[in-house]
Structures are given as C-alpha cells and as structure tokens.
Amino acid sequence: MKIQPVKFLEGKISLPGDKSISHRAAILASMATGDTRIENFATNADCASTLDCLEKLGVKVRREDTTIFVKGVGKTGFQKPETEINCGNSGTTMRLLAGVLAGQNFDSVLTGDESLSKRPMQNLFIKFQLAEAQN
Q1: Which residues pair with 135 in a beta bridge?
Q2: Longest CA span, the chain
Q3: What is the DSSP string of 102-114?
Q4: How are the residues of the chain apportioned to helix, strand and coil, as percentages rounded to the nearest 5?
C-alpha cells in the first residue's frame, strides 16, 4: 500500500467530550495552518490548562461552551513565551507540549503546580536524549 501526503484535510468528526482526545485535538489544531473548530471539548481544568498554554505560545483560541476555535500557527509557528508556561496540574499538558516545544527554535520552561512538580518526568527526558543522540 502506498500512502501519499495530502495538502489539507476537510471534514467533520463528532466525538464525545473526552479529556485525552480534547488535549490532543487542541494541540494538533494549533500545529495546523488555519482555523479549526472543535466541538464537545472537555471542560475540565486540565484541558483548560492546555488551552492557556497554547495561548501563551501565540495561538489564538476562542471558547464558546464546549466548542473551541483554534487558529493554527503551523508546526513551527509558535511564539517564544515571555514567561514560564504553567501547565497547572495537567501531566498530559506538560508531556504533550514538551514534545511540541522540542521542535521549536527557542527555549521554553514548563512548570506546574506543587502536585505536578512532584510527578516523575525522567522517562520523558530519557526519550528526548535518545532521540537527540540518534540524530
């Protein structure tokens, strides 16, 4: 089977307001070019942390109840944040954004609340070091 790259994707997908999917949908939308509408976005604090962090990276986000609108900046179009990026208590936000930020041309610092700061993140950094060593 041969898979060809596409220039754009258009369509509609209806999913329940799932926390894991909401994080990923917002981050993927931010890495896309153009406008994305996400319906049934989870309304918990962790997903709100992801949106707040994306806004600190220059992504325009508009919220209307469980629908969010994201103006994507492309995979390398994020802006260097003026301060540390606070992920609140969301480990998913920290782990996923660490991967996105590793591909940017600026340094950034991810922080979190006291609880998140105590959680193990060594595995994440080991993976980055291995990937860096292979390049």
Answers
A1: none
A2: 49
A3: HTSSS---EE--H
A4: 40, 15, 45
Closest alpha carbon to 111 in 86, 83, 82, 80: 86
Count of alpha carbons within 13 Å of 2, Cβ hemisphere only? 1
Q: Which amino acid is at 100?
A: V
Q: Which residue has the tokens 């105590």?
A: 118
Cβ count within 10 A of residue 122: 7
**What's the pTM value of the predicted model, to 2 decimals?**
0.79
Domain borders along the chain are: 19-134
Could you tell me if 96 and 27 are in contact, meaning their C-beta atoms sit under 8 angstroms apart?
yes
pLDDT tens sequence across 89-129? 998 998 899 989 988 999 998 888 887 777 666 666 555 55
- What CATH number does the domain located at 19-134 have? 3.65.10.10
Q: Tell me the per-residue pLDDT of 50-87, one tens digit each, with 9 for 90 and over.
A: 999 999 999 999 999 999 999 999 999 999 999 999 99
